[in-house]
Amino acid sequence: MRTMLLEPGLAVAVSKNQQLWINRVLRMGFYMRPRSEIRDNLNFSAPNPEKINRITQNSQIWFFLNPATDVEMKITLQDSRVWGGEAGVKSGNASSYDDRGVYFANGDNANSRAETSVREAWLRYTNIGVTGLGVQVGRQVLAYGDQRMLGGANWNVTGLSFDGLVVKLDTRYFASDAILVRGTSKDSGTNGITSETSVYDDSYLAGFYNTLKPGMVVVDVYGLGLFRHLSPESIVGTTALSSSQQQSNLYTFGARVTNRTAANKLPVGSKWDITLEAAFQAGNAPDVYFTNTAGNVVSNSRTYKGKFFFAQTGYKVLDEMRVGAHVYYSPGTTDRTSGSLDTFQTLPGPRFGGFPYLNVFNGISENMGMKNIFAPAVSVSYENKLLGEFILTYLYENKATTQDAWYAISGAANSSATTNSAARVSTEDAANTGAVALGRNVFQELDLVYLKQFSAYVSLWVGIGYLHAGDAVRLARGADFKADAFMSFIQITGLI
Prior knowledge:
This protein is mainly beta. About 5% of the residues lie in helices and about 50% in strands. The chain contains 2 helices and 24 strands. The chain has helices at about 10-15, 470-475, and strands at about 20, 25-40, 50-70, 70-80, 115-125, 135-140, 160-170, 175-185, 205-210, 220-230, 235, 245-260, 270-290, 295-305, 305-315, 320-330, 340, 375-385, 390-400, 405, 415, 440-455, 460-470, 485-495. The relative contact order is 0.13. Mean pLDDT is about 85; it is low at about 90-95, about 100-115, about 185-200 and about 415-425.
């Protein structure tokens, strides 16, 4: 069920469903998720607020075949669309555009308003000569840990998948995946490797994800390489730029440790959870072009030197209530014209955590990514079998490095050459001349999410969020500034 966004209760019910098995060899499944969103002024601009109202839908039909003990196959057909056709999700730089447009194939910048595709088509052999050794080949979804580095990105309408192979070794105390895949999209950003450009040709992801399972904790250790051809980057305001493609090799090394040892959940009877994750990056980045103090356009070659840290803890004060806290920290680049790119580069489709710890999403507004971020948060969740689950989260979203940008969830920088631009802006002077006052707090966000499973196969989600922008946006906007923003959604999930 890696292609679907499901709360644990619904996932368990469907996994135990025996109705759609045919001779214990073929299992069919159906999934549908219509979702309505209202997004108001998430760019914090008084004259040019973003007002986006839309209904999206993700529908899937899948077939799982288990013809022999050590052989499995799965095909998932998926339809993703925006209701009404012509009201597609927008993508671009204008104030009314949605910064998540890079994730949508059915945007206003595309010829099609809908996408029907093969989300999965894979074959898996297990116990090849050695117990626990196997290989999975074909189109597949990658999901590891809390999916901060690699995930299915099922929170958006299309999600991600990859073409390639994964060699798997899974034993009682140790598991290891060797990965070699390509993204499945070249131009729209959906179902593939996303970046800040539209170039996805020759993009490969390769590496290892290892898991140690000693008993009381789970330890993940990973090394992942992302190999792409990208255009050089131009600091905003630079007029001349080479369009030649350059090879970018991004290497991410990290580790994650958690005491959630029961399929990424706390064992029965445990009350306290803790998760820590850290990652470091190296490799060569595309050149940066900028205008120097003499007014000439020059360039610097750069290397990746990003760092990322995450810590989370929570305690069940009652069987139904958990109080938790978490923090993201990932410093940015002080001088973006230098030869060092210190801003952490997100890997394909980060999901910002998973169930049953929905509070580790970086806010339901999805208005800030994992680049250049210092974001502490606290949450309270209460679950009642009759009433459903309520999750209240407060997030304090800051730029870790004031000179760097505020980055959208897509990875794109919210920056502009002028302080009064109608485009989405950050507070740094993009040419690094120090002409613009700097701020640190981007916004505060308060979210309330309600989840209710009405039957074994249907659930309802409702969320509402209030955002209040801080000095980082206020100093950038000047007279155009409006601090208050809102986001709400309602979705129905049906699965059998």
